[in-house]
Description:
Blueprint: E1 2-7, H1 10-25, E2 29-34, H2 45-50, E3 58-59, H3 67-85, E4 89-93, H4 97-108, E5 113-116, H5 128-139, E6 142-145, H6 148-157, E7 162-165, H7 169-184, H8 187-190, E8 199-202, H9 211-222, E9 228-231, H10 234-237, E10 247-250, H11 255-264, E11 267-270, H12 273-282, E12 286-288, H13 296-300, E13 304-306, H14 311-320, H15 336-347
Parallel strand pairs: 1-2, 1-4, 2-3, 4-5, 5-6, 6-7, 8-9, 8-11, 9-10, 11-12, 12-13
Helix pairs in contact: 1-7, 1-15, 3-4, 4-5, 7-11, 7-12, 9-14, 11-12
Amino acid sequence: MKIVSVVGNRPQFIKSGPLSEALREAGHDEVVVHTGQHYDRELSGIFFEELGLPPPAHRLEIGGLARDEMLARMEPVLEDVIRAEAPDWVLVYGDTNSTLAGARAARTLDVPVAHVAAGLRSGDWSMPEEHNRTETDRLSALLLCPDERSAATLAGEGVGGRVEVVGDVMLDATLRLGPIARERSAALMRFAVEPGRYVLATIHREANVEPARLRGIVWALGRLAEPVVFPAHPRTRSRLDEVPPNIALSEPLGYLDLAALASQARVIVTDSGGLQKEAYWYGVPCVTARPSTEWVDTVELGANVLVDADADALVAAVHSARIPDDLPPLYGDGHAAAKIATALSMLAPMKELR
């Protein structure tokens, strides 16, 4: 069976590692398409190198554009790739522009779509990601959910397609690579920080890098007594004039360095969906600079606090951040990739999914 996998940003590269391996072990032929949504080496190439991913068969180099323009550029090129490869499935991940462009292109060509991380909702329609994930679910023949809540959401919305609860592929990568990262990475030494005595911050979403809002977040981080390690997305860095002395601003980091820092921080401050989950799995409290999240379980269980961009709330949340005792496992058992490969194998003969 032939599968075209569409990837374009950091979380998708991480998820594609264990899943590509599982697809190979199941005897499937995978063709990886990198849209170029993240195009810097630090946001793209380094992940392929560190995670041992097969090089993409197709590189579209479409990035750095507004959402509608990016979708308009990606869709026809992805159609050409899918038409040429003639796959049995197109596999998309998460909620990015690359996700939606891949799903739209596949449906245009009547190729069934499998959506990894289906059924997630934040309820915040101001976020482009909410539009992307919701439309992608409606275009998908196979909906691969991280948990029962997501499956129930799809049922409640009347979304068609076959639903499978498989867990989160990012957990597969975290369990496998987290210990390796702590062993191999010299990131803590580089930033001169000690385990449990620093804050890791990542801010990159378009709403948060609006200059006044970004200045408020950075000013709040500057009020913290602890050192703050802040690997900055190029878009974020370009809009920062200066930072307080307790903030170590750097270029984006590879997976191993970021995992080493995230797993040993006292607190993570982020607007990344992926890091909210990783913080939970590492047992590190998270403060999320967003008004909403699709990973609602982490908030309900007290491991994650939403503060939007309120500076006072952010400072207070970081000061008081603690991980509750006896947290339950979330989003699977670390074997999501194998379950996805099995689901695709079982559905291969089902032509009606097209």
